[in-house]
Amino acid sequence: MFIVREEMNNAGAIEVLMPVVQPADLWQESGRWEQYGPELLRFVDRGERPFVLGPTHEEVITDLIRNELSSYKQLPLNFYQIQTKFRDEVRPRFGVMRSREFLMKDAYSFHTSQESLQETYDAMYAAYSKIFSRMGLDFRAVQADTGSIGGSASHEFQVLAQSGEDDCGSFSALVVFSDTSDYAANIELAEAIAPKEPRAAATQEMTLVDTPNAKTIAELVEQFNLPIEKTVKTLLVKAVEGSSFPLVALLVRGDHELNEVKAEKLPQVASPLTFATEEEIRAVVKAGPGSLGPVNMPIPVVIDRTVAAMSDFAAGANIDGKHYFGINWDRDVATPLDSQRTLKLLISATWWLAIQARMVRVRC
């Protein structure tokens, strides 16, 4: 604890100790009483008043500051504590990892501007780096999802090890990092760049093919002997509220999986990510989910960068029981240049990935 306290104090943070038992009304006010889910340990006292055993202290510290702060001139403020936390984990395992009771250092800061917030964020980043370095740990500062709290940036400082939080049983436990730079990211947020090779020239004419028994990519590939990397799957999700279109089409290569974390962060897409029902799809496209594709798609289209690099590919024709073969961008359908993203999960069968021409490893 000495190293942690020393570096936090050096960074200008003030140590406090907040109550483990927290009133439910604070969590109800923030909306996280329902949002946090079953991991939130709840109980009632003898007066039937609801409380929680704190898994974190955003609600408590915010209530404290709003009642004690008298002027913006008192800001910025940065508080930290080292305290026992409680979460009702569904399957506690690995000893100190994913346990229901654990010791955590958490910090909370308050600011009058984004610039002030960024200064404290940078100071905490530097402090964490010093803590891990002083402990002699092999670590990476990993870009991570901001989760239910939100925000524009999040880093997880992760120690590299052969066994991990989910023993590689979950994509969210995987880290992509470079051996030749400081790049590191959670697998769900890792970015891929567009292929460096130019898109191959078209060699086929677009052809409408009857595919009555091919409702999935696997069936299409098997029945028509197509290379799966020459196929595109189209997924329809609900659009953000206020959009002029009810749905958005997301395109990934046939052998790739949609990264739902990234998809949910798209400005066109509603949060939480919600896949369209068959009824909703038919109301917009006039075809079922097994026959969707980019040609004549009447709603906005967002494509993965690997899809943008494809030529002579197969996709649904937006007509039941039919697909187009030999589709080419800008000849048969316009490339949505302002809607190219990394939508796929960065996972390969051998757990090795090439990002920005550098070899990176995937570890838990």
TrEMBL record:
Annotated organism of origin: Escherichia coli
InterPro entries hit by this protein: aa-tRNA-synt_IIb, aa-tRNA-synth_II, aa-tRNA-synth_II/BPL/LPL, Pro-tRNA-ligase_IIa, Pro-tRNA-synth_IIa_bac-type, Pro-tRNA_synthetase, ProRS_core_prok, YbaK/aa-tRNA-synt-asso_dom_sf
Pfam family, one: tRNA_edit
GO CC terms of this entry: cytosol
UniProt keyword list: Aminoacyl-tRNA synthetase, ATP-binding, Cytoplasm, Ligase, Nucleotide-binding, Protein biosynthesis
Record-annotated Aminoacyl-transfer RNA synthetases class-II family profile domain positions: 1-336
PROSITE patterns: AA_TRNA_LIGASE_II (PS50862)
UniProt-listed GO biological process terms: prolyl-tRNA aminoacylation
Enzyme class: ligase
Catalytic activity: tRNA(Pro) + L-proline + ATP = L-prolyl-tRNA(Pro) + AMP + diphosphate
Record NCBIfam families: proS_fam_II
GO molecular function, one term: aminoacyl-tRNA deacylase activity
EC number: 6.1.1.15
Name used for this protein in its record: Proline--tRNA ligase
